[in-house]
């Protein structure tokens, strides 16, 4: 039985590669905020991580947050060590739904909070304002539902969707009945509302018998509760919850772009995601379930980062980011073939940025949960 040849020793980066790496890191630290008025959803607060003037050489992500939080939930994940190489070669457009930026005042009494459908359709205004051609949608919970509707409405502006704990059906009678008894105060989030949001966000992950794999779970739940009480306006949070509970069915089977559904096996929405996947075109929609995870961002961030990278490679993005266990030089020489079917080597005149330019036909997605997590550069 023949064995694979040993990987060639890593080569030292050239001065040019070091300069490019430094420039990417500097660009990834750029952060700008915008207030963008939309046709039907009012004003959206937008936080951009990365330099959008370099979008031709970057993967551009559009994120929408879940209930009980805002863009900082995605910002924290993007800034985590397992996302460092992806962050260097990407831009992130984080959306705060109306009234959800830090320390926002209550929305006016005459303001009609948009439905998830309206929010999704209006997101194209953000892209137009920022002069962004197309994006990868990255959403969680209610935000995943919003981005799915964006992808359905504007497929030409969406390269793909990564949806975490996405619900495809309308709220059940039981869900609606339960939320009617949640008490909300104008100046604080009441205990019943907090319990609902904790369960929605973390599922069984904070249950003593199903602790998951994150040793910092208690700290994470405590920080979530603290932000819920100190940074977010409870009246505005209630509006988003109501929009989620009155959502309509999501016809994801009609989606024209590639979709990756991610859920944790301990998530309260795991079975809902499974049902959504069952009703879709399997050539377009892939599902990944993560064991011992309720909130996949906190319980399995490296697996989520790995899945994002694999999905983006399937869209011809982030091709210079090498998967763990693959030698960088070998990866560049075999990742795309020439016209005669033989491996095409990375040209000496091609920079990492040029190699990262979108090429939709370059690669296809293969989800492999056995791969080790992405390691950040030291």
UniProtKB/TrEMBL annotation:
Xref: InterPro entries: AB_hydrolase_fold (IPR029058), NDRG (IPR004142)
Transmembrane spans: none
Region Disordered, annotated ranges: 1-22, 330-355
Pro residues: compositionally biased ranges: 1-12
Gene3D superfamilies assigned: alpha/beta hydrolase (3.40.50.1820)
Stored PANTHER family: N-MYC DOWNSTREAM REGULATED (PTHR11034)
Family indicated by similarity: Belongs to the NDRG family.
Stated name of the protein: N-myc downstream regulated
């Amino acid at each position: 039985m023949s064995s694979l040849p040993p990987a060639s020793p890593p080569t030292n980066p050239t001065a040019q590669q070091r300069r490019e790496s430094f420039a990417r890191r500097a660009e990834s630290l750029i952060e700008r905020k915008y207030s963008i008025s939309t046709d039907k959803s009012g004003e959206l607060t937008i936080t951009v991580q990365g330099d959008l003037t370099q979008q031709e050489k970057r993967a551009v992500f559009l994120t929408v947050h879940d209930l009980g939080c805002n863009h900082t939930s995605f910002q924290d994940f993007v800034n985590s060590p397992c996302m460092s190489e992806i962050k260097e070669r990407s831009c992130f457009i984080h959306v705060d739904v109306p009234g959800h930026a830090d320390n926002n005042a209550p929305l006016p009494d005459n303001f009609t909070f948009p439905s998830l459908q309206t929010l999704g359709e209006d997101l194209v205004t953000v892209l137009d304002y920022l002069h962004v051609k197309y994006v990868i949608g990255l959403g969680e919970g209610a935000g995943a539902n919003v981005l799915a509707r964006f992808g359905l409405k504007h497929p030409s502006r969406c390269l793909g969707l990564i949806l975490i704990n996405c619900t495809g059906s309308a709220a059940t009678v039981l869900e609606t009945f339960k939320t009617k008894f949640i008490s909300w105060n104008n100046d604080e989030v009441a205990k019943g509302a907090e319990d609902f949001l904790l369960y929605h966000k973390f599922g069984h992950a904070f249950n003593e018998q199903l602790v998951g794999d994150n040793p910092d779970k208690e700290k994470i739940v405590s920080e979530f509760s603290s932000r819920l009480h100190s940074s977010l306006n409870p009246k505005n949070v209630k509006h988003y919850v109501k929009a989620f509970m009155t959502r309509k069915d999501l016809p994801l089977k009609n989606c024209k772009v590639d979709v990756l559904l991610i859920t944790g096996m301990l998530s309260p929405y795991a079975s809902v995601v499974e049902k959504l996947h069952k009703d879709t075109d399997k050539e377009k929609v892939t599902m990944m379930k993560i064991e011992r995870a309720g909130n996949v961002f906190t319980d399995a961030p490296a697996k989520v980062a790995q899945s994002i990278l694999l999905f983006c490679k399937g869209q011809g993005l982030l091709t210079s980011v090498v998967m763990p266990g693959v030698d960088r030089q070998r990866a560049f020489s075999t990742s795309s073939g020439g016209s005669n079917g033989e491996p095409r080597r990375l040209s000496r005149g091609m920079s990492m940025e040029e190699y990262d330019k979108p090429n939709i036909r370059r690669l296809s997605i293969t989800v492999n949960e056995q791969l080790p997590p992405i390691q950040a550069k030291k």
